[in-house]
TrEMBL record:
The modification N6-(pyridoxal phosphate)lysine is found at residue 625. SUPFAM superfamilies: UDP-Glycosyltransferase/glycogen phosphorylase. The lineage of its organism: Bacteria, Bacillati, Bacillota, Clostridia, Eubacteriales. Keywords: Allosteric enzyme, Carbohydrate metabolism, Cytoplasm, Glycosyltransferase, Pyridoxal phosphate, Transferase. This is Alpha-1,4 glucan phosphorylase.
Length: 777
């Protein structure tokens, strides 16, 4: 028996007093994880010398850790045989919840980056918050979303080590708390692999219990300090692509930024002595969106309190930090009310003013006319503009897909680009092929490896060697067989989780992402209604039966997003209850979509829905995961879709709808009512929201959705995301796709060409670009 297997047995016996046969799932999970941890720890020491990069992020959406870690360590097979020897299998870990310390793409990107950096030998550590509760758990009641707390730590947290000795104190105006780090090894895969660190801070009280108050029978007062401290890392804010100007949110941001910087300064001094002037040569810090941007005045403060003058300190700050922008949605650009800011971290405000003054001097030097200065001010109309601070006080600002970076430069922040063009650069997102192909789709991985070897696991460009196989009927058939198998497996999962019988012979058309108006799940819903009526009216006669799958969480306070979930659930009910379409259409909205669910859905997909309004989705990353698993993209010219179809061929994907330029031209004169009146199909599906066809349980939310398109609202014009403009082209493109899939081999060829050209979307490529072009590590 191997040392690994022996360790597992030993841990089960000593800690739980059980044999593998007697153990619970959580006990096995804990023992297997800790046995693997014991091995990882041998390779897990931070080297004292050499520059390191740090990824500061409020979110790390890690998903389930055990599979990926065992895979990267080369222990997966051994674990599987250990379990098999005791009548168990890896599927048992499906019960273990995800570490969902993130909302969506931004947090998942951070997780992919960690995996890629460790694999590519890039010394990169993650710094963030160890939320007590991750992203809420979602269920549906009568088609409406309900939220419940995500108590992820109940499964134990064997992949983290508490480092009491590295705790630091963090000072706020009204409280001082301890930040205690929990470290997880980030284990790379392959020959160049490193074991890097993810360090997540937990907030705790300095004095968790007041005996004096307790003795005076003031029980809740006795633990008040503890509760107030722990509130800071209690819960992840459930907003994606929107900002939350709340006091606690600012506290969270300062909490992990200040703790991480204190940690780095301490390490720096230990290695290089008290003079901090070389800090930027030791650490490169990437700010993942504006959430950690408060690090800028904090580092300035730390440097100046050590005696550095402003100019010297500012130069270190600029050379240390770089900023990634993930969205141009106005509602996501963080601004903090000056008074709120001062009431939370008063010690920082003077440093924000110093930054503002330095900016003022730069603008004068560069002769920026007075009327244009408003566009630059960090402190402006009683608010602190974090994105402006991030651009001004760093050496690099990057977007996350080519079109997104162009939009930043030329329409979102053109005045900044005009002054500092050299700071702006693009880093198109990527995904790790370890989790998103090797681990979640062993069947397809096996087929690929059988054809071209397994070099793709750490060098995704090797997928190019599949190109000749795209025309090979045997490979096409083998691909189709794999797809069928993954669809069957997904149908089983959905049967058990949702109680819904998905037909594995249907075409699987999937849209999974956060629920947001700009992502246009609503348009997808309308288009399904159009199909429904098309079939009923005899306009559509030869449809390849299609299952439409959705997965999405709506921010709990996002009224319309929740209405769209209810709408899709009602459409599902309508379709399911109608004999005339039952053999042709299925609609299912899965509950609690998360990383683990994505790992089941994506391999089974044939159609990847990427239908955001052109110019709104910064990149998207699920689009890349679908491509890698051999789905075709049905999408708009937006985000990374553009680069995807450029790589895989427009003829192998399905692009429709208005482009950014079209929308720009149309903006002033756009009138959705005109389309509604001129196009009976549009009228038919819109009216279904309000004519009694679909019921919103008398909440009025369907009427509100209807009005958001045709009437607008006080804060936006009618149909601000151009659903009606793109609806018919969308429906028609989907029908064309539907006709194309009937030639199975021709369709398989398209899928294979998507896979073969997915190499550039590996986060290994992205991370190497950050390392070389931004961090110099
Ligand atoms: C974007 O909406 C992008 C991810 C990761 C999201 C998405 O298009 O793929 O970031 N932005 O870069 C976001 O969450 C707060 O902004």
């Amino acid at each position: 028996m191997s040392a690994f297997s022996q360790d597992i047995l030993e841990l089960l016996r000593l800690d739980y007093g059980v044999s593998p046969e007697q153990a619970s799932t959580v006990q096995i999970y804990d023992a297997v994880s800790r046995a693997a941890m014991a091995q990882a720890r041998r390779r897990w020491q931070t080297p004292a010398r050499g520059k390191r990069a740090c990824y500061f992020s409020a979110e790390f959406l890690m998903g389930r850790m055990i599979g990926a870690n065992l895979y990267n360590m080369g222990l997966l097979k051994e674990c599987a045989s250990f379990l098999a020897a005791h009548g168990l299998d890896m599927n048992m870990f499906e019960e273990i919840g995800d570490a969902a310390l993130g909302n969506g793409g931004l947090g998942r990107l951070a997780a992919c980056f960690l995996d890629s950096a460790a694999t590519c030998g890039v010394p990169l550590d993650g710094y963030g918050i160890r939320y007590r509760y991750g992203l809420f758990a979602q269920t549906f009641e009568d088609g409406f979303q309900k939220e419940a707390p995500d108590d992820w730590q109940r499964f134990t947290d064997p992949w983290a080590v508490r480092r009491e000795e590295d705790a630091v104190l963090i000072r706020f105006a009204d409280q001082t708390v301890r930040a205690v780090p929990y470290d997880s090894p980030v284990i790379g895969c392959g020959e160049n692999a490193l074991v890097n660190t993810l360090r997540l801070w937990q907030a705790e009280a300095q004095r968790p219990f007041d005996f004096d108050l307790f003795n005076r029978q003031k029980y809740s007062a006795a633990v008040e300090e503890r509760d107030r401290a722990e509130a800071i890392s209690a819960v992840l804010y459930p907003n994606d692509d929107t900002r939350e100007g709340k006091r606690l949110r600012l506290k969270q941001q300062y909490f992990f930024s200040a703790a991480s910087l204190a940690d780095l300064v301490k390490r720096y001094k230990a290695a290089h002595g008290p003079d901090l002037s070389g800090f930027a040569e030791a650490y490169a810090i990437q700010l993942n969106d504006t959430h950690p941007t408060i690090s800028i005045p904090e580092l300035l403060r730390l440097l100046m309190e050590e005696g550095m003058d402003f100019d010297a300190a500012f130069a270190v700050v600029c050379r240390t930090f770089a900023y990634t922008n993930h969205t141009i949605m106005a509602e996501a650009l963080e601004k903090w009310d000056v008074n709120l800011f001062k009431s939370v971290v008063p010690q920082l405000y003077p440093y924000v003013e110093l930054l503002e003054n330095a900016l003022e001097m730069e603008l004068a030097l560069r002769r920026v006319p007075r009327e244009k200065k408003q566009n630059y001010r960090i402190i402006c109309r009683g608010q602190i503009h974090m994105a402006r601070m991030a651009i001004f006080a760093t050496h690099s600002t990057n977007g996350v897909a080519r079109i997104h970076t162009e939009i930043i430069k030329h329409s979102a922040l053109p005045e900044w680009y005009a002054l500092w063009p050299e700071r702006f650069n693009n880093k198109t997102n990527g995904i790790t092929q370890r989790r998103w192909l090797a681990l979640c789709n062993p069947e397809l991985s096996g087929l690929i490896t059988q054809r071209i070897g397994d070099g793709w696991i750490t060098d995704l460009d090797q997928l190019k060697r599949l190109v000749p196989y795209a025309d090979d009927p045997a490979t096409q058939d083998a691909f189709l067989a794999v797809k069928e198998e993954k669809k069957r497996q997904l149908a089983q999962v959905i049967r058990s989780k949702e109680g819904f019988r998905l037909d594995p012979t249907f075409l699987y058309d999937i849209q999974i992402k956060r629920l947001h108006e700009y992502k246009r799940q609503f348009m997808n819903a309308l288009s399904i209604l159009d199909l429904y009526y098309g079939i009923k009216e005899g306009r559509i006669t030869d449809l390849q039966p299609t299952a439409f799958l959705f997965g999405a969480k709506a921010a709990p306070g996002y009224y319309r997003a929740k209405g769209i979930i209810k709408l899709i659930n009602e459409i599902a009910r309508l379709v399911d209850g109608d004999e005339a379409v039952r053999g042709l259409l299925q609609v299912v909205f899965v509950q609690n979509y998360n990383v683990s669910y994505a790992e089941k859905l994506i391999p089974a997909a044939e159609v990847s829905e990427q239908i955001s309004t052109a110019g709104t989705e910064a990149s998207g990353t699920s689009n890349m995961k679908f491509m890698l698993n051999g789905a075709v993209t049905l999408g708009t010219y937006d985000g990374a879709n553009i680069e995807i179809v450029e790589a895989a061929g427009e003829e192998n994907n399905y692009i429709f709808g208005a482009r950014v330029e079209d929308i720009e031209k149309l903006r002033q004169s756009y009138d959705p009512k005109q389309i509604y009146q001129a196009e009976p199909r549009v009228r038919r599906v819109m009216d279904a929201l309000v004519d009694g066809t679909l019921s919103d349980g008398s909440t009025g939310v369907f009427r509100e959705l209807y009005d958001s398109i045709l009437e607008g609202a006080s804060w936006h014009r009618p149909d601000q995301y151009y659903l009606l403009l793109d609806l018919i082209p969308y429906c028609e493109t989907r029908l064309r796709l539907n006709r194309d899939v009937r030639d199975r081999r021709a369709f398989a060829k398209k899928c294979l060409l998507n896979i073969a050209n997915a190499g550039q979307f590996s986060s290994d490529r992205t991370i190497r670009q950050y390392a070389r072009e931004i961090w110099s590590v």
